[in-house]
Specification:
single chain, 271 residues, alpha+beta, Fructose-1,6-Bisphosphatase, Chain A, domain 1, D-Maltodextrin-Binding Protein, domain 2, eight-stranded mixed sheet, five-stranded mixed sheet, globular, metal-binding, Inositol_monophosphatase-like, His_9_proposed
Length: 271
């Protein structure tokens, strides 16, 4: 989609954006019903945890999408791909940050994205326990809603130099060998380095509180919703080769407040 679509098409996309935001909020409310409750924790094949909450929330997301857009395909973390539609695919992560969820830490989110022809056009980062959300539509900016219900346009910080940057990655445990050394070098060279956060840190970057993110071992439902949020706030988000993010990306992600900062991180990861 482009900003100069005919008005009727723009209105249609705004309706889709608002639907995605409402759906993510409803899913987040369901997730909260399970938060800090005693749940059976299972391990998937990749040793990541999963609970009843993950599955029930994804069922709600899928039911909402199927009711409104029955012809669209859906890709979700717990139930994989359903439907075949090359034009429109929804990508959902019911609880992004399940490790945080099962340990009672409120920094976990629900992610909803809509891709058109393989490109993320709508992205929602819903933070249920914090009552915060970022809602993005390509060509129409990104809206941040805080816990009081106030809404404002999100915009990145504009930080260009690594020495002034606030750096985040979810965990150094997701990096190994030379790659870990490179990420540690970036962390040490930055003004402030912090760890944890999953999808939340992309929202914080969009709102100007974080300047640089480097991640590894992500899957499409972990990052596709964050792409419109970062880009519509004025930031840059690519893979480690500088290519645009899509469903076929390899799970290595760099997000930055400016092209200059993004280029510095890319260079450090290439050595």
């Amino acid at each position: 989609m482009t900003p100069d679509l005919p008005q009727k098409d723009a209105d249609h996309w705004i309706e889709i954006r608002d639907f995605a935001a409402d759906l993510a909020q409803r899913a987040g409310h369901l997730a909260l019903d399970y938060f800090r409750q005693r749940l059976e924790i299972e391990l998937k094949d990749d040793d990541s945890p999963v609970t009843k909450a993950d599955r029930e929330v994804e069922r709600l997301l899928r039911a909402g999408i199927c009711e409104r857009f029955p012809a669209h395909a859906i890709l979700g973390e717990e139930f994989g791909q359903t439907g075949m539609n090359r034009d429109f695919t929804w990508v959902v992560d019911p609880i992004d940050g399940t490790r945080s969820f099962i340990t009672g830490w409120p920094i976990w989110g629900t992610l909803v994205a809509l891709m058109q022809n393989g490109r993320p056009e709508v992205g929602v980062i819903e933070m249920p326990a914090l009552c915060e959300r970022w809602i993005a539509l390509r060509g129409h900016g990104v809206l941040f809603q805080d816990a009081s219900g106030r809404a404002s346009r999100a915009a990145v910080s504009g930080v260009r130099g690594l020495s002034h940057a606030r750096f985040y990655t979810t965990s150094l445990l997701f990096f190994e060998g030379e790659t870990r050394q490179q990420v540690e070098t970036i962390a040490q060279a930055s003004h402030t380095a912090r760890f944890g956060g999953d999808c939340y840190i992309y929202g914080l970057l969009a709102s100007g509180h974080v300047d640089l993110i480097v991640e590894n071992k992500l899957l499409p439902y972990d990052f596709l919703a964050t792409v419109p949020v970062v880009e519509e706030a004025g930031g840059v988000i690519t893979d480690w080769s500088g290519r645009n993010i899509d469903a076929d990306s390899d799970g290595r992600v760099i997000a930055a407040s400016t092209p200059e900062l993004h280029a510095s991180a890319l260079e450090m990861l290439s050595h």
